């Protein structure tokens, strides 16, 4: 269609006609790109079908893909010609990009990981696809009103035509409810219609598919007792919106419906389109379940194999447990999914019957061993009227992994030690990664250019080659150029933020950034308490005049998570005070980024000097923001938690700011229950004063409810060790300031971080999954 800038301009102008407004330009560009990738998409699919290669299906309740326009331009290799061509025609690509609604189909790290994996699979030319839900409403839009988070529905499907293609021809029917015996009757069928999104590989012509399912009313008859209106509403609700909870599991029937809907639709399709006999499934297909949300795929696959394919139990079980593998993303107890047996039995009676049988057989097998009662309980899939999805996921998978070395060790030695003892060979680690194409090449073209000028462009395809930058650590001119890039990215961020933030931001200040979901264990509270202590010190000590710092916060709290919402409020209250104080504001400044999402992230990671990764050690399974910061040259200020451990291993302790209790120490304190927050407060005059004023409401503006924070720190005995780690955190901040003064050393640290970040590309992660778990073969789409 077009191969040069001139051809692009000609075609674009022709299609645009007289309607030269940005909306039309966006639509025209989108349509041209869809046409451009269509042929490769069709060819990729043909190739996969005809060559009968093994294919991966990555099932996830979330895919936080972010905007696709510019990403796809990069992948198609036409970014520059389109950008320049548009400019010459009087359009601004950045402005057009802003028109694309943000597909926020995820909460945080887990959903974003799925999106990075899609990108890497296509880039590595591996046959792997995503299966998920086409939520009409993505994650809520956050607004800060009077300092409080308020939530508004997000309608990403509005107005503008997206990248997807509806496939009515591939719709399937999902069975809910009904009675089982003598056969399954009175079923309430729901139609699942796929919307396919192209995932364009960066090199070559691989275009994989992200298939998102939408729930619609079925044409099949309803059971006599069911009211049609009720049925219609219930059906639409299934793909209506994403659950905004990233940590707390509530046993809501709608969530279970979503899970089963997505799994059944995906599995039915996989089985229907198998190129060979069903007993060869494990050689033709790998299914990865992203956390336990799709764990119901295990009994659902059994159901299909038993009831629809007519296999015997043993063979069906053998096939299932050689096809499905499971990734765990959390050890937080409250995030472990447990479903009420009655709920499952009513919603998906046959599936529940199968779970029951899986549990019965597993327990029978366990009877042959001598096990303590406690151990037996831990190994039970059904226990106390609840179905423990993590146990089901381990028993029904051939591989189980954690997402960072520390996290996997904790699974093996603590959280899942009984299961690990039963299945030692199943457990393995796959440290997370991020796609350097979005988080470096797209988000930071300035840095990309500097790197390429310095080490050539092989690293674009082999990010591990970023290692070559190590030779520039003490290179003054490289350091100077790097500083220039950082300055440019800070100014771009400021230009973007200042529209909505009314106090001016100092581009020469240290940008200290804490962006992620709000949660107790992520300890945004520790950060803001520390800032308050800096404020106090500047006020009280006329000799303390620290180098200017801007503290950025961004992130959403689950709507029902009151404590997290009060922390957001506290940050905004303290921000208002700090930012309007003439003495203080030239030293410290606070910015709260409203409605933090992927697009904000793309502007923030490149502008950061300091990456706040301060979770309570052992609680953050991996973290992936830490990698995005590192790749953009920010230095980690963090605990030895999740993938921070591996980041520090690579860059060396001298190139990070590490503080706080270690995971072993935290776990011991938790086990022996001998931590006393009150004692910590008593021993520290600083904390004592801070806490007294905080809890008396002196730091409040009168509208927040400080009792949630009091409850957490005092009544609940500070479960995330905010007070315990406070001083070592504060001391490390002082070290940051001191280090920043030596710019030569600082820039060297920054180079070192970039140079070591290649290993954290999701290309590495995906290659490891492929080698160790999925056994995929690279397929070249040449024709
Ligand atoms: O997964 C995150 C972990 O906290 C983080 O450490 C890790 O890096 C990342 C990728 O492995 N977990 C996470 O983001 N979890 C969720 O967002 C989530 C979403 C939905 C539900 C539970 C958790 N849910 O119950 O539906």
TrEMBL record:
One of the record's GO molecular function terms: 1,4-alpha-oligoglucan phosphorylase activity
Reaction equations catalysed: [(1->4)-alpha-D-glucosyl](n) + phosphate = [(1->4)-alpha-D-glucosyl](n-1) + alpha-D-glucose 1-phosphate
Keyword tags: Carbohydrate metabolism, Glycosyltransferase, Pyridoxal phosphate, Transferase
Superkingdom of source: Bacteria
InterPro entries per the UniProt record, alphabetical: Glycg_phsphrylas, Glyco_trans_35, Pyridoxal_P_attach_site
Transmembrane segments: none
EC number(s) recorded for this UniProt protein: 2.4.1.1
Cofactor(s) required for function per UniProt: pyridoxal 5'-phosphate
The keyword Transferase appears for this protein: yes
Top-level EC class as recorded in UniProt: transferase
Function (record text): Phosphorylase is an important allosteric enzyme in carbohydrate metabolism. Enzymes from different sources differ in their regulatory mechanisms and in their natural substrates. However, all known phosphorylases share catalytic and structural properties. Allosteric enzyme that catalyzes the rate-limiting step in glycogen catabolism, the phosphorolytic cleavage of glycogen to produce glucose-1-phosphate, and plays a central role in maintaining cellular and organismal glucose homeostasis.
Family: Belongs to the glycogen phosphorylase family.
Protein name, as recorded: Alpha-1,4 glucan phosphorylase
Organism: Planococcus shixiaomingii
Lineage summary: Bacteria, Bacillati, Bacillota, Bacilli, Bacillales
